[in-house]
Write a structure and sequence with these properties.
heterotrimer, A alpha+beta (288), B alpha+beta (787), C alpha+beta (161), B: 787 residues, alpha+beta, 5-stranded mixed β-sheet, C: 161 residues, 5 helices, 34% helix, 17% strand
Chain lengths: 288, 787, 161
Amino acid sequence: MVLPQFEYMTASTLEEACRLLLEHDGKAKVMAGATDLIPPMRDKVFTPEYIIDLKQIPGLDELTYDEEEGLKIGALTTLRTLEKSELVQAKNPAVSYAAKVIASTQIRAKGTLVGNICNSSPSNDSAPNLLAQGAKVNVQGVDGTRVIPIEEFFLGVRKTALKPGEIVTSVVIPPLKDNEKAAYLKFAVRKAMDLAIIGVAAKIKLENGICTDAKIALGAVAITPILAPKAAEVLIGKELTDEVIEEAAQAAMDSCSPISDIRASKEYRKAMIGVYTKRAIKQCLEQF
Amino acid sequence: MHKDCSKTYFKKPEFYRLTGESNYVRIDAEDKVTGHGKYVGDIMFPDMLTGRMVRAPFAPARILSIDTSEAEKLPGVKCILTPKDFEWKAKVGNGEFAAEFADKEVLCTEIVRQVGDDVCAVAAIDEETAQRAVDLIKVEYEKLPGVYDPFEAMEEGAPEVNWEGKGLHNIGMQSHMCAGTDIDEEFGNAAYIQHRDYSAHRMVHAAMEPHGAVATYRNGTYNIWMSTQMCYVDQFWYARCLGVPENRVRVIKPLVGGGFGGKLDSYSFGLCAAKMAELTQRPVRMILTREEVFQTTRNRHPIYMHIDTAFAKNGKMLAKKCYHVLDGGPYGGSGVAACAQATLWANFPYKLNSVDFLARRVYTNNPSSGAMRGYTACQVHFAHDLNMQYAADQMGIDPVEFRKISAADPGYVAPAGLHITSCAYKETLDTAAKEIGWYERKGKMKDGEGIGFAGTGFVSGTGFAVLEAPNQSSACVQVRLNKRGMVTLYIGSHDIGQGSDTVMTAIVAEELGLPMDMVKTFMSDTFLTPWDSGSYGSRVTFLAGNAARRAAVDAKRQLFETIAPIWGVMPETLECLDGKVISKEKAELTMPIGDAMFKYMTIHGGDELIGVGSYYHRTDNSQYNGENTTNYAPAYSFSTGAAHLTVDKETGVLDIDEFVFAHDCGRALNRRAVEGQLEGSIGMGLGYAVYEHNITKEGKILNPNFRDYRFPTALDMPKMRTFYDFTPDEEGPLGAKEAGEGSAAPVAPAIANAVNMATGVYFTALPLDPEHIWRAMNGMEDDRHSK
Amino acid sequence: MMHKSVISLTINGDSVDAIVKDNLTLLDFLRDQLGLTGTKKGCEQGECGACTVLLDGLPVNSCCTLAVECSGREVVTIEGLAREGELTPLQRQFIDKWALQCGYCTPGMIMSATALLNHNPHPTELEIREAIEGNLCRCTGYAKIVEAIQAAAAEMNWEEA
């Protein structure tokens, strides 16, 4: 099947990309790895008249870590880079793991984390970690830059908080302190090349054996990836015994209302949220 | 040289140099690893057009009108076919012997019966233009009531799908196999009787290469390069549907990227490509998209199975009744013999006093079902082996011992008329039990851990349905030797990836005592190579292999009869070995085969030497004429699969620690080829058992892609070990039996039996995906998927 | 109006200049425009890996790559592996180990394995399986493929030593 027709454009600066995007608002798509762009175009899910390739813009493929700011992931940083980076493996293994479980080796060689979140699929594997770890999304528009907290970024299926002419330039994940651990678990039928039936990310802070802060984020159980604050509340202020973790898992299940589709039923998704919330919290604890 | 030919000149095993232990390589391997090999989609002509089909978006429906006017105006559109272009209305079927069952129009004239049914075809200068033309063709439909459940379809008053009013409502085919002792008496005398129901789901072949055809029309001849498992059968149907004699239809099989039964039908797209090549006088390429392959080619039959079984006190199976209902979809095609086979497999691999097996293939508006690796054996063995396991557990007998009590033996003749020749079923059971560690682990497994066995049997070499007429079921081979002793081998058989071209080459090289590169093989071209009815029924190695051997031996005999008088010895004392003709009695008598050939040509006035061979399974067609007993095949293969796994009880996810496969394929002609077949069978069987399911809604497949139709990746495969050194079969070519089709059958039931042990739940339906297992463990209904 | 671009890229070591439609994939460019049909079309959705080529040394699905985005970059296809008639160790081991049957996944499989061994000369079995996780094979059950890649790695390491 031949792709629908479009005009391919390259931008050499961010400003130019934003200007082109605004000029063709509603008719243009931004492209980085293209792996989440070409398959839906072939299915005519969307048929942009213009594609704006960001790959010529210098500096967008950064991957840096700063003890203060945290991990900065550029718009052109590929999932493969994240997966293979020793820096990411050392500083935030959950992010490395979440990159590794996406699609296939070939897709990850081109696809980017920023592209993954901009596509805003409910089951995307990148989002739960970002939500659980309070990431910030750096955005450039024609009138300058702004920062969108990740919990405000996802608005719906294929809908984000980006305004006309805005492009995500990077995502920043705050550093994990010594007393903070994070985990992401994907539940899918195949070990590769599969979409998550559900995904759960957790971040746990422990002080003197007591959980003093926690976040639980869930994928594929709502129109966007979501936080489950009620599950986190169960944990905070307590020693994380099996009973407490079980209670948090129940709270996570109660805080989602998944749908049934060809991949799984809503009952199963909900039950798996319980199982995987438990396992994600335990995986955090195992890292202490 | 006919089947009952003298075996005087057959090479004795002590002179085998090539087959068996030697790791000779595939003759197509270098082409495949360099990317030079040509599959149908790789065949290009400079002025080639691209074809596309216009397909029904829903079904059933009545076609009210077809408007091609807008598409005709589109620049670059060169041809549009509508149903009128096939106005002589010959329909497409499958076996030539069953031409009266042909039930598929090339392009639907009035009614579309399944989603994706063929309505029009387009050829344009490129793919993009062809796609746009398809979008511009307006077909007006009136939706009709459909039926998507075979049981509903059988009810009087259900919508008629493709039924001509004969026999039972919407039933296209029925088989009843009833033989042996008085079955009521057997059940009356039984110590234990059970009644169980099972079902197996819809699956698709998912060969990596999509179906396709490239056609040209030159000098009044259609030349069609086809991704097919049966080019001679294509030739027959193409000629009928194009309204020309067969001498105007040349079908050529290039490399085929996997078939598994999915390329055993003559599909409309190829016919349309041929017709458009004629009308445009330009080559036309028509390659299906992956979605079209899923929706419009063929699927494995979903089958619903009821089994009643009677056992004696010691566990011996006495008698069995079963009723199988097959969801056929709206067309017969390669599904035409599914009923007969679905009763056949219920015999295997056990001895029974009495059988009463009934199978019905029902027309529905679901995607059409057809042949797929095992040809209903995977479904039937799934049910019937789980049925054995259940009985073993109920009677408190060890499952391996229980299977051995009733296991078939060499020389056994079944009430259904099956003559078992070589049979190592019991040995495969013992091997699998030992290798999976059954006796050490039995009774010591932890909660959630299980070991499952399954035993199956299959035909090894059958006909196109089993016929008396050899010309419809035989495999033919010709061998030509030139004055250098180089061989040109012409085979009709179809290598679709399994490596049969290599095996045929090796068999001929073996008999003629030549290195393989002295044998140049030409294959699967209806104008060039001799007749062969196709790759199905596990017939290629057995039938074509025997034919190849006979052709080589026929050549060898003629050569010996020429050389022996020169040496003053008897021809049967000679042999071909290591590139020479030798005397088995006098070591000093040797002659390079090239020299021998030079002598042959000198003596015979310059004639090159031609050897001819054929083979077919000599039996009768009584099972298709309402009788009960037939010997389906010249030999039968037997397998035991064993799985060791643990079930994650919270999620229903399986962790398969190991799969052991013991397969009685007679003598392996190439060890790696056999292992590859068995490992591939485990892969496909695991997919069937756990991962793969065509989910349909009103006949539309909801997951027609590799994202949601998940077959196992390299990470999903368990550790595998295969065992296949059992007794050579006397009739098999150099001792071989089938190794790639029946082997697909024991995988799903072995896994299911292991899951049963691990969970304590007796599953009766496939697939055992995590949610299915989780639901069963939690006592929940599983109504997620429509039938 | 049909949008086209001029591209210059390196394919199997040769400089190639071409005019391509913007909506042309790298896969169709290689196959239909250059006649490099060793790269196979299996699904066109990035889900089977039969179309895998190396783009700047990394394995990518050429069906999910635009030809136009490859300007200035280096592409290697299955046809670019054997040099001066000599097969690579991977190609030879795929032959020797019977790591192919129908062969339709083979070019993509070998490209993924080539990328793996270029970056990781001593892969574990798990790393090999991960490297080919995006290459579906319907025939072999992958066992012989993994064995061939292991054998090629061993051979290359032995040659270097």
